[in-house]
Amino acid sequence: MTVHPSLQPSIDAWTQTIEAISELVSSLVDGEWNRPTECPGWSVRDVVSHVIGGECEALGDPRPIHTLPRDLYHVTDETTRYLEVQVDVRRHHTGPEMTSELEYTIIRRARQLRNERRKPEDVISHPLYGKMTLADFLDVRVFDIWTHEQDIRRALRRPGGLDSPAAHIARDVLLERLPKVIAEDAGAPKKSAVVFDVSGPVEFLRTVRVDENGNGTVDSSPSLGPIVTFTTDWETFSRLVGGRVRAKKVADKLKVEGEAALADRILASFPVAH
């Protein structure tokens, strides 16, 4: 048996984006490792630690036994506490220690993925994500790593990767979040539609529709009378929906038309970065 064909694009995207991170950080000096990112409280080193930790857990490695300091302002709930353990345990690692662990983790995880014999629909259990299919889990890992590749690129001022295979998977993961954000969190009215018109390296138009029961769905058909339309570029969309930045900071890159109060609720409902 070999890897299921439908999993291979996700595996290829994972390989490309995590190797991009490895290349980005391979020659960093100390000051660059310490540059802040758009993830609250996390430096470039911390983001790389998070990537390493996530892949180690995907490999089935035991979680570190580690007590967090009490003064980490960005640790606010069980999710951030869970994520912080893998970060804080590496906080004093040197650059060479970070790059060597990242490279070794990539080798181990790539070997595991090459030997993956499970089916895309097989259900796995994750401490943060709950139960999900293997296919969805792989896409979430691709999304997470691509998002952090972009965090690192912005911190180092080395743009790139916005149109990679992983970027297209990230788009789909972000779009899947929109129906809940708009229908439930922001309380868009029944029988309404919200349009996202996104330009740039990953270009798309999507409509989130709220039906008569208040349930949200997303599709690629235009709406004749949307209650709100957001027009922006791909990088700004990914930062907004991914919780990297609030709308006020990118107001010059975001055009909002329609019902202002609902638009504000939608923008306020996007998550805070992890």
Q: Give the overall form.
A: globular
Which regions contain 5 or more consecutive residues with pLDDT less than 50? none
**Number of DSSP helical runs:** 9
Average of the residue pLDDT scores = 95
CATH superfamily (homologous) name of the largest domain: dinb family like domain
The overall strand count is 7
> What is the makeup of the main sheet?
5 strands, mixed
What's the order of the H and E elements?
HHHHHEEHHEEEEHEH
CATH fold name of the largest domain: Four Helix Bundle (Hemerythrin (Met), subunit A)
N- and C-termini, Cα separation:
37 Å
Percent in helix: 40-55%
The total domain count is 2
Q: Supply the helix-strand structural class.
A: alpha+beta
Radius of gyration (Å): 19 Å
The largest sheet has its strands arranged as 5-4-3-6-7
- CATH architecture label of the largest domain: Up-down Bundle
Could you tell me the strand content as a percent range?
5-15%
CATH C-level category of the largest domain? Mainly Alpha
